[in-house]
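Summary: Need help interpreting a holo structure output

Steps to reproduce:
1. Submit the protein chain below together with the SMILES for MTE.
2. Request a joint structure prediction with the ligand placed.
3. Inspect the structure token block that comes back.

Expected: a single structure record containing both the chain and the bound molecule.
Actual: see attached output.

Input attached:
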Amino acid sequence: MKKSPQWQLQRSEVTPESVFQQRRNIIKALGLSAIGASVPMGVQAGLSDWFGKSAPATAPRQPLSFSQTLRYGITDPLTPEDKILTHNNFYEFGTAKTDPSENAQGLITDPWQLSIEGEVENPKVWSVANILDSFPLEERIYRLRCVEAWSMVVPWLGIPLARLIEQAKPNSKAKYVAFETLYDPEQMPGQRSRFTGGGINYPYVEGLRLDEAMNDLTLISLGLYGKTLAPQNGAPIRLVVPWKYGFKSIKSIVKIRLVEKMPPTTWTQLADHEYGFFANVNPAVSHPRWSQATERRIGSGGLLSAKRIPTEPFNGYGDQVASLYQGMDLRQWY
Ligand SMILES: Nc1nc2c(c(=O)[nH]1)N[C@H]1C(S)=C(S)[C@@H](COP(=O)(O)O)O[C@H]1N2
Ligand SMILES: [Mo]
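--- attached output ---
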């Protein structure tokens, strides 16, 4: 695996080797060689309190190699991996932040098929393996800004969505791209009832204008922190659109459809006066119930964790995407 020195520096900043060493020393001092085999549950719980929150029991993730790391000028420290794995929004598995990591581990992600269809010359059903074999993975270090005014910095692995769309050859009618998450109430408890699923009419759907979908920043992600995605992050394949609020970054997708008209989207259907189709991160346009001027960076730690940081227009990616919206009133098209 090729990693840039920058990437390694960032990684070591967030998970210092000394912490691992310290844990090993304590475990050794207690005469515990292997946690799990020899340690009673009560002691394990005590140890994880002592060490901070224990790592979640996440379904196994395979290492992935990638060709390059792009960060688009973002130099903020990465959010620790355990935070990315335990602070989630994935309403198919419950509406609390810890629900997805607790409820999604059984999600069957292999085999998985993603179909690309609609206004295209070459519709195709891809397997995840097929996608991994066909395109080089890149690491993209992106900010993720949730509409709820918290944020993270995530080292995603993926391919530009443009690669898949180019292969499909959109015809002249194609103006928008519609995305759909798996619909499987047997596996996704949130889809069984309006009460547990946050009132959403499933499957979760999202959309982009074709030029937004073709922008180099728009990523189809298959992994993070050097490994395949965990179920709670949208395994095996999800969208990541870093200049838009997080709800646009639809998880566990099974269908991409090129269409002529602006497609319906889940959060707009739920409350169109609060959540628009474009949903570009914009500190100047408040949500009706809270300000979007600042955000809380998850895992930034310690006593300063209550401190808020300013939110940037287009989440800091204006150089790459502001031109897409020339002549549009972004207060009207929120
Ligand atoms: N299918 C689906 N995709 C989804 C969501 C969801 O509930 N269901 N939540 C969205 C929201 S609001 C956010 S902020 C991001 C969170 O991604 P993460 O949990 O990987 O950080 O996923 C988005 N994609
Ligand atoms: Mo979100």
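--- end attachment ---

Reviewer comment: The chain has ten helices and 13 strands. The pocket of MTE (ligand 1) is lined by residues 88-92, 144, 146, 181, 204, 233-234, 246-247, 249-252 (CB under 6 Å).
Status: needs-info
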